Amino acid sequence: MSQLSREQIRTMMGEVLANQGKELPADDSASLDAIGFRSLDFSELALSVEDELGTELNFDAPGLRSITTVSDVLDFIEQLQSA
């Protein structure tokens, strides 16, 4: 299975936000609450990643609860690709 780079995932995350008139900050430590990135946005990002990879990402809801920053989202999706 091919993998997306952290930068590619970050770009896709920025596109999800841009579709709502929001902007992804340069600082990966930015809080998701502060930038308005919600659970539905995460779902949209995950679907985009799955489409790009041509495979389904397997993750559970409890794992999502610990995600609070841009960096957490990038780390989480990187880990899913390696699973």
TrEMBL record:
PROSITE patterns in the record: CARRIER (PS50075)
Boundaries of every Carrier domain copy: 3-81
InterPro entries assigned: ACP-like_sf, PP-bd_ACP
Organism expressing this protein natively: Raineyella antarctica
Protein name: Acyl carrier protein
